[in-house]
Amino acid sequence: MNIVQILFWFLSVVALFGALMVISSKSPVHSVLWLIVTFFSISGHYILLNAQFLAIVNIIVYAGAIMVLFLFVIMLMNLNKETEPRKNRWLKMAGAVAGGALLLVLVAALKDSDLKQQEALVKTGNIGLIEELGKQLFSTYVVPFEISSILFLSAMVGAVVIGKKD
Amino acid sequence: MPINYYIFLSLALFAIGIVGVLTRRNAIIIFMCIELMLNAVNLLLVAFSKMHHLQLSGSNAVAGSEGQLFVFFIMVVAAAEVSVGLAIIVMLYRNVHSVDVNFLNRLKH
Question: Which of A99, B43, B99, B103 could serve as B27's disulfide partner, Cβ 3.0–4.6 Å?
Answer without folding.
Answer: B99
